[in-house]
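Listing 4. Sequential folding, example run.
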Amino acid sequence: MKTKRTAIVAFLLCAIMAIGIGFAAISKNLEINGNANLGMDSTGFSVAFVQADCSATGTDGTSTIVVGGDSTVATFTVNGLKNAGDTVTGTFTVKNTSSQNYNAILGTPSVAFGTGENAYKAHISVTTTGPVKTTLAQGETTTFTVTVELVKVINDASAQVTFMVLTQATSALPTA
């Protein structure tokens, strides 16, 4: 009887091993690999100049501002500064034109002069004020100004000074 029991136990062990081997032969492991991108996708983020106006004191009134084709560059041409104290002020309206719900964080505008402008740079003062609002929700606008003042008279009728006013806009998710 002991032999019979040993034979049954051996048979059952062999059967369990055969089932395990058979299951292993026909089973597959499934793996799920993934990446979690934690940074903000700023596709659809944009800001643009939507309006620009000139006002002048003591000049001939021929200064202009032209906003470029993609509305991210404005050319401010200042003419008619003849006497010390003459000024031209450009008022620039910036809009958060994002197609997605992003805030635009605006930096403080800074002035940079073109290369080779040292001869006349001391004759003018370029100052900025604003932006009035530094965080713009989607669709909101703000303004900043650029004032060019003739500080010292220039005796050269063809004198020209090139400058750029730079401001940076960064995207941010709105806070709840």
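-- end of first protein; second protein begins --
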Amino acid sequence: MSNDNKKKIEPWRIIIFIIAVAFILFMWIKKDIAKIYATMPQEQILPMIVTTIAVSLLKVGGLTVAILLIKWVVGKIVGKTDKTNVKKEKIQVKLFISAIAKFLLGVVLVGVLLFLPAGDFGYTNGWLLMGILFIPMFIAGIVMLFKNPDLLKKRLNAKERQKEQNLVIKLSGLMFIAGFIVAGLGYRFSWYMLPWWAVIVGAVLFLIAYILYAEVLRENTYLSRTIEVQENQKVIDTGLYGIVRHPMYSVTLLLFLSMPIVLGSLYAFGIFLMYPILISVRIKKEEEFLEKELTGYIEYTQKVKYRLIPFIW
């Protein structure tokens, strides 16, 4: 569902922005990476590189907040910023602080759930997952902050009003906790670990899913983490929405099922197989709601037959 009046972000602009950020980040940390390769043991290289990148991203985040604050203060002192822009920039700063706080909380929680059961920081698969999960997430958050702050605000809102859907979200949270802990324990006690070629395939699938996730966000500016119909919301049936009715759930299915593969844990993969069941329950309830509340959705379901996976369901 989207609104024609909302300005969409052109894909080439996002790609150029990501390349520019990646280049600046590389130039910033290339000396540190060279030093890591020269001085660190082989098993500590990847964790240290991921840590270095994460610290650099936090510096970028802090610099962004500082720039926004300076811009607002200077505009207020000089008097060239009208009240509307002042209010907008205040909201933008608050939104960024909220986003970065939740981002850091996510980093800490995932780190604890992976490395505490693992028993040490040498769990390379854990560092790999954190790198491909949080680095693109940070970049995407910065893009949304400046290009579409309303969408970022909606993505940060996870307060589900419906009791049944709230239960689905809680069960999904338990799935993540159990899966990450089991993966860490598998490393610690040398349970069966997937070969590295499978881990690499999982990482590639994860990154592909991230790209598709960005495309869904671009196509649908009304995406929300809660089930709701927003003002002037319309049905969209082009792009990925012309293939399946819930491309966001399709993408998260690929994202989440590739996570335990990146972690190298077959046992965690078994736990994450709960997700297709949980998401199918959510989709059925969501469609019942949309058929009642969103004009044109019934016709859309007749045009696009598949909910989640093409030719299957």
